[in-house]
Amino acid sequence: MIKVYFDFLCPFCYLGRGFWLKMQEERPVEAEWVPWEIHPEYPPEGGPAKSDAKAEADLKRYRALGGELRHFEATHVSPNTRNALMGLEFARAAGRTDAYIERVFQAIFVEDKNVSSVEAVVELGSEVGLDGEALGRSLREGKYGEILAERDREAEGMGLEVVPSFVQDGNLVLAGSTTMNFEEFRSKYLAVWG
Fold first, then answer.
1. What is the pLDDT of residues 101-154, one digit of tens each?
2. What is the phi-psi region of residue 10: left when phi exceeds 0, alpha when psi lies from -120 to 50, beta otherwise?
3. CA 180 to mean position of chain CA atoms
């Protein structure tokens, strides 16, 4: 079992997940996607917005790395992902983990949506079959806040520094994908799990 520590805010996590899913067709490896809030200091409504020039520069870079596997549009929003990450734990309990993760990533990196609010997360969760009313209640009550805190302690206790971090048996085996295209990721993946 691999644990992949990630945050929805991270474009390289979006890339890494796309690359990981593609590799499952070739060499399946069981994984748990673990929420790790990388910018807890962002205000509840989200962090600093990107300028048009920054958004366009990022878009070129991400598209070059993502190729045909991950679609990107220019993103200006830097959401606070706490609610989205707690929503992931709700989705996990409901057996909708994969659909939820993909929907939130699409909202951020394709639709340029701010997923900071409870309402935004409820809308996305409802789209993938989650009980919106129960999801909203769990977010407002902070039901999964302690789980996020535990995940933070786990990551920090292992000395993880970047997302995505792929961990096996408590050891970091593959970190980040900030400069990797799919073929480079595939090569590293096969070196570890091939």
1. 999 999 999 999 999 999 999 999 999 999 999 999 999 999 999 999 999 999
2. beta
3. 17
List all residues 6 or more positions away from 13 whose beta carbon is below 8 Å from its beta carbon.
6, 7, 105, 163, 164
3-state SS track over the chain = CEEEEECCCCHHHHHHHHHHHHHHHHCCCCEEEEECCCCCCCCCCCCCCCCHHHHHHHHHHHHHHHCCCCCCCCCCCCCCCHHHHHHHHHHHHCCCHHHHHHHHHHHHHCCCCCCCCHHHHHHHHHHCCCCHHHHHHHHHHCCCHHHHHHHHHHHHHCCCCCCCEEEECCEEEEECCCCCCHHHHHHHHHHHHC
* pTM, two decimal places: 0.96
CA–CA distance, 166 with 134 (Å, rounded to integer): 31
Strands of the sheet containing 171-175, edge to edge, are 31-35, 2-6, 165-168, 171-175
Short-list 62, 37, 58, CA closest to 49: 58
Q: What is the pLDDT of residues 38-91, one digit of tens each?
A: 999 999 999 999 999 999 999 999 999 999 999 999 999 999 999 999 999 999
